[in-house]
Amino acid sequence: VSFIAKLVNAVETNNTLLCVGLDPDLSRIPEQIRAKSAPVFEFNKAIVDATHDLVCAFKPNSAFYERLGADGEAQLKQTIKYIKETYPDIPVILDSKRGDVESTNLAYADAVFGYLGVDAVTLQPYLGGEALEPFLSVGDKGSIILCKTSNPGASEFQDLAIDGEPMYLRVARNFSTTWNTNNNVLLVVGATYPAELAAVRQITGPDMYFLVPGVGAQGGDIAEVMKAGLGKDKRGLIVNSSRNIIYASDSNNFAEAARQAAIKTRDEINKYR
Amino acid sequence: VSFIAKLVNAVETNNTLLCVGLDPDLSRIPEQIRAKSAPVFEFNKAIVDATHDLVCAFKPNSAFYERLGADGEAQLKQTIKYIKETYPDIPVILDSKRGDVESTNLAYADAVFGYLGVDAVTLQPYLGGEALEPFLSVGDKGSIILCKTSNPGASEFQDLAIDGEPMYLRVARNFSTTWNTNNNVLLVVGATYPAELAAVRQITGPDMYFLVPGVGAQGGDIAEVMKAGLGKDKRGLIVNSSRNIIYASDSNNFAEAARQAAIKTRDEINKYR
Question: What is the pTM of this model?
Answer without folding.
Answer: 0.98
